[in-house]
Amino acid sequence: MAQKSFWRFITEVRQETKKVTWPNRKQLLSTTGAVMVVLLVCGIFLGLLDIIFTNVIGDLLKFLTGGL
């Protein structure tokens, strides 16, 4: 029974993928480029936040511990 439902599932998946509207090359490259730009901007932003918080917390700890 499990074998039969597995093959039915595979058949249904193939039928559904035929209904999908796939992007053309121009759309694919455009959206991929947009995703890469957003990832780069987010990475830079998070990296800067990390540097800022590391320095602030380090300075705060030095101040609270007497500058050891």
Automatic annotation (TrEMBL):
Stored Pfam families: SecE
Query: Does the UniProt entry include the keyword Ribonucleoprotein?
Result: no
Protein name as annotated: Protein translocase subunit SecE
Classification via InterPro entries: SecE_bac, SecE_sf, Translocase_SecE/Sec61-g
The main location is membrane
UniProt subcellular location:
Cell inner membrane; Membrane
What does the similarity note say?
Belongs to the SecE/SEC61-gamma family.
**Membrane association type:** Single-pass membrane protein
